[in-house]
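In response to reviewer comment 3 from the previous cycle, which asked for concrete evidence that the modeling workflow produces usable outputs, we include below a single protein chain processed end to end. The sequence was submitted unchanged, and the resulting structure tokens are shown without manual editing.
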Amino acid sequence: MARSTNKQIADRVATLKAMILSGSSKSTAVSFAADEWGLSQRQCHRLLARAWEQIRADVQPLDRKDLVAWAVHTLQETAGDAARRGQPAAVVGAVRELSNLCGLSTTSTPRGWKR
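The workflow returned the following structure tokens.
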């Protein structure tokens, strides 16, 4: 079997990274890679390790303020999308999480935790 080019490897790592970030399990990603690209389990695990390295590198320089800003933006988008789709329960959930994140609610401590 011919060796993969650097471009192929980068594309495969990007695909596995997208799978991980969309919620796929490790076994699902490995099976996909083996079936799709005809790789050994060992090589699939190596590619998956590279994908995880990229994910960790993406969040390493992340500042707490950046993370909170991203979370607020995401929750606002989620609430807006849910409202446009006529999903009031999802709107309430997103607004509740936003309120907790910002410390606006009187019950901003997660359930079961004591202050």
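The radius of gyration is 20 Å. We consider this sufficient to address the reviewer's concern, and the full set will be provided in the supplementary archive.
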